[in-house]
């Protein structure tokens, strides 16, 4: 059945749907041997999608904001182009926190995302900001979905909905066509039902893109491949050293989360891997640094939505007069189209970047970011491929770089991956979320932001069931995720370990 144009528009505008369904389905021009042939993939609505057929309008790209409520993109984001080339069908666009700012997908101009999961009859948070993508995957509305992860927005919803959420290393997937929140942190991520599926999507998306200035160039990708694929690294990895950072064992962890974490570790120990405690001392400052840096970048990125260059324009005059210290009525009204959380972040960012405050806030936060990166580099056996010392020209030098970073007193030190919980608690009920202050909401990200600050690959998988697999469903309702973090570029190992946990 071929839907009419009207049906298409109606579905697109019915924003109470978790997902605006795309009736314009066509992958006729793609060979059926392509890896994603016929796979329905939903796209978070801060990633641009154009029309793929002249008879049909483009799907919307709203970033869940009133300011972009009527926007359609003339082009597809690079990641969407790649999906289509691999045979995927764009299932539709998914709801989110406005511009990706939030942890529960409740800050949307198109109403909150509703999770299908409940506790004692009370609706639970879907997590955010990619909550719509997570729910679309969890409910089988699509095979997999794209999200974006700036400080945890793919991993947190994955944990809360019992799905897999993978944030690759910063720079591996193109950000071209992704509406910026905080460019130095924004990463396209993948939500899927299992690691096998996430891997297929990742393989289709990864690659250099000259249109994204932060896309890792082919030479760096080759260096990463040489480092990770070196015989010495491969040999070492038959038995993994898994690091457990003490700083992640915060008082706020609920007993169920702590139990799931230690259950995961003992299962991996039983399989012959060793589990070692490590210390990442700057972790305790990571959340504060993140909430200085991300809003600072956001305030700069969102300046362009002035109703002239981007965004809808409000009624009013622009007579150049100043009223109450504000430059123009039209500008104020236009910027008033942003939701409360976005406005809060713009103000916060504008303040921390202001002449009086920049040294105390923005500059300090950048320092902390450096220290967080250094902490991670200090515990991983694999050197950071972006660090100068880790730019070997040959396999022999690769081995030397690895040894010098990992050998001490004749022992190989350094871990291959870190394992932590994804979130301190199972999903809260929406009633609890409604009562939280924004700072309490920011607390949900405490375990996900450190990897974001360092650009590291990190994957959330549902925690293994308590006994033998029988109560898997109950566990999914619990919504406890385990996070695997690896060295930059070590995405393959992160997925391998996540698959072992699954
Ligand atoms: N919750 C975090 C924030 O609001 C992370 C969001 C994200 O990763 N897009 O900034």
TrEMBL record:
MF annotations from Gene Ontology: ATP binding; glutaminyl-tRNA synthase (glutamine-hydrolyzing) activity; transferase activity
Keywords: ATP-binding, Ligase, Mitochondrion, Nucleotide-binding, Protein biosynthesis, Transferase
SUPFAM superfamilies: Amidase signature (AS) enzymes
A Pfam family: Amidase
Cross-referenced InterPro entries: Amidase, Amidase_CS, Amidase_dom, AS_sf, GatA
Active-site residue numbers: 44 (charge relay system), 129 (charge relay system), 153 (acyl-ester intermediate)
Catalytic activity reported: L-glutamyl-tRNA(Gln) + L-glutamine + ATP + H2O = L-glutaminyl-tRNA(Gln) + L-glutamate + ADP + phosphate + H(+)
Gene3D superfamilies (UniProt xref): Amidase signature (AS) domain
Subcellular location: Mitochondrion
Cell division listed as a keyword: no
GO biological process: glutaminyl-tRNAGln biosynthesis via transamidation; mitochondrial translation
EC numbers for this chain: 6.3.5.7
Location, primary (coarse class): mitochondrion
GO cellular component: glutamyl-tRNA(Gln) amidotransferase complex; mitochondrion
Amidase domain ranges (all copies): 31-495
Family annotation (HAMAP family): GatA
Subunit structure: Subunit of the heterotrimeric GatCAB amidotransferase (AdT) complex, composed of A, B and C subunits.
Similarity section: Belongs to the amidase family. GatA subfamily.
Protein's job: Allows the formation of correctly charged Gln-tRNA(Gln) through the transamidation of misacylated Glu-tRNA(Gln) in the mitochondria. The reaction takes place in the presence of glutamine and ATP through an activated gamma-phospho-Glu-tRNA(Gln).
Protein name: Glutamyl-tRNA(Gln) amidotransferase subunit A, mitochondrial
Protein source organism: Cryomyces minteri
